[in-house]
Design brief:
Elements lengths: L14 H7 L4 H8 L5 H26 L5 H7 L4 H44 L7 H29 L14 H4 L2 H8 L2 H18 L3 H23 L7
Helix pairs in contact: 1-2, 2-9, 3-5, 3-6, 5-6, 6-9, 8-10, 9-10
């Protein structure tokens, strides 16, 4: 496989600068850690993401757990009484402790699971000998995009007083259009997820030493397949009952 010698000009970037550059120059972030990624390179970005997640949950808690909002009533109008009670029970759990426990558990779980997927792709698709630590670093820095997503979503929730907001092209569609296959695909195509997939593609490319477009094409392509599969699955009659 072609191995590209990336610049060493970024090796002295401090951690905070590496974290900032993930939003506008992700290649330089990964070049800075490529030769010797450390514990802090996956732990601290993940910790920042979890802290932002907890903070935005706290800021929006009164809205996302309010069963009296018109938007919530409309959302559960077609549910059975049993399903509606389950949703309300979930809201009660979120209000009590879920707003802080979910980010702590899910943040680490997502880090490990997605890093393992990136490792499998790097080993089997790109035939590279990268390590799990390399992929933990890639996913951790990319998670800062998710932190930005949480901030934008919290702002929209507070602005519109709605517990559910979309950060995808599906937001401009009518409710009827959102129920079609194309509509479900557009609803599921979260722009921040696509951004994060591209950042992870760049990170994998830098760690392996190959052109960015190859890593971005594979990771973003996999993301697109997951979105389409989820949209098709969501339209299955048995799942709509």
């Amino acid at each position: 496989m072609e191995n590209i010698p990336f610049s060493s000009d970024f090796e002295d970037l401090p951690l905070w600068e590496r974290m900032k550059r993930i939003f506008h120059a992700p290649s330089s972030t990964f070049q800075a850690v490529r030769s010797d990624p450390g514990f802090h390179d996956w732990f601290l970005p993940t910790a920042v993401m979890v802290i932002v997640w907890v903070g935005t949950n706290w800021l929006t808690l009164d809205i996302i757990t309010d069963p009296n909002l018109p938007a919530f009533r409309e959302h559960v109008a077609d549910l059975s009484s049993e399903d509606r009670q389950q949703v309300i029970a979930w809201m009660d759990m979120t209000r009590e402790h879920g707003w802080i426990s979910l980010p702590l558990v899910a943040g680490l779980a997502y880090l490990v699971m997605i890093s393992l997927v990136l490792l499998a792709i790097s080993r089997w698709v790109f035939r590279s000998d990268v390590t799990l630590r390399d992929m933990l670093v890639v996913k951790a820095y990319a998670s800062l995009i998710t932190a930005g997503e949480f901030c934008v979503k919290a702002l929209l929730i507070l602005l519109y007083n709605k517990s559910q907001v979309l950060l995808s092209p599906g937001a401009i569609l009518s409710p009827e259009m959102q129920e079609t296959l194309i509509g479900r695909i557009l609803v599921g195509a979260n722009l921040f997820d696509l951004w994060q997939a591209c950042v992870m593609g760049i990170g994998v490319s830098v760690m392996i030493g190959m052109p960015h477009r190859r890593g971005m094409a594979v990771i973003a392509g996999l993301w697109g397949m997951i979105v389409v599969f989820g949209a098709v699955l969501a339209g299955h009659p048995d799942l709509q009952r």
